[in-house]
Design a protein that fits this description.
- The structure is a single chain.
- The protein has helices spanning 2-27, 31-48, 53-56, 67-89, 98-109, 113-136, 140-157, 162-171, 177-200, 207-212.
- The chain is mainly α.
- α4 packs parallel to α8, α5 crosses α8 and α8 packs antiparallel against α9.
- The radius of gyration is 17 Å and the shape is globular.
Length: 213
């Protein structure tokens, strides 16, 4: 039980971190600066050991089936964190970012679900690259680039990130059954994309294996 409480708390904190990135992105007129500063959220998440669904889902390929329960708790925690963060921001003087959030959400809802899934798929790939890169790259500069570059790429490309969208939906006051349906497709796309590289690299031949053969 304690492990799940820890898992949930770290996931809720992730929601707040994503919200911090979302606020600054919606507040910036320059999309390049906004996309870069949004990466602050992911940097906080990875540096403090918080749990982001899109950063964790890729490791489902390497874990036992019970890991799916962990992912469900993480997803719920991320939702709670982003919703609370968004609700708090709506009570402040910067609540006018609601207009830009609404415009962002409109683009998503005007899209078809196949497009949403594909865009979420590529975002999932980038989020795994960021999480795994931060974990495995030893060079400090490389760690920073592994975090900020994938975030900038997914935002500037228009890819779909289910957790970031939870925050946008809250700020835009856009929650509905239709929204839940779109979020489900985004989550599935992120999950498939996140597991893509781990799944494919299972077939890689490492130098060690090659020598043994």
């Amino acid at each position: 039980m304690k492990r799940f409480i820890d898992l949930l708390l770290r996931s809720i904190m992730t929601g707040f971190a994503i919200g911090i990135g979302g606020v600054v992105f919606l507040s910036c007129e320059n999309k390049y600066i906004g996309s870069f500063l949004f990466g602050t959220g992911l940097f906080v998440i990875l540096s403090f050991g918080f749990n982001l669904f899109t950063g964790k889902v890729g490791y489902a390929v390497e874990n036992k089936p019970s890991y799916i329960l962990d992912l469900a708790v993480i997803w719920i925690g991320n939702l709670i964190g982003t919703a609370v963060m968004g609700g708090m921001i709506l009570c402040t003087r910067i609540a006018n970012i609601e207009e830009r959030a609404s415009a962002v959400c409109k683009i998503k809802f005007d899209d078809d679900l196949l497009s949403i899934f594909i865009l979420a798929f590529f975002c999932g790939i980038l989020m795994f690259i960021a999480a795994d890169g931060f974990k495995k790259i030893e060079n400090p500069v490389g760690k920073i680039l592994a975090v900020f570059l994938p975030v900038m790429v997914f935002i500037l490309s228009g890819y779909e990130h289910c957790i970031a969208n939870m925050f946008y939906f809250t700020i835009a006051k856009a929650w509905s059954l239709n929204t839940v349906g779109y979020l489900a497709v985004m989550t599935l796309g992120n999950a498939v994309g996140g597991m893509f590289i781990p799944f494919v690299r299972k077939g890689f031949i490492t130098e060690k294996k090659a020598v043994q053969k």
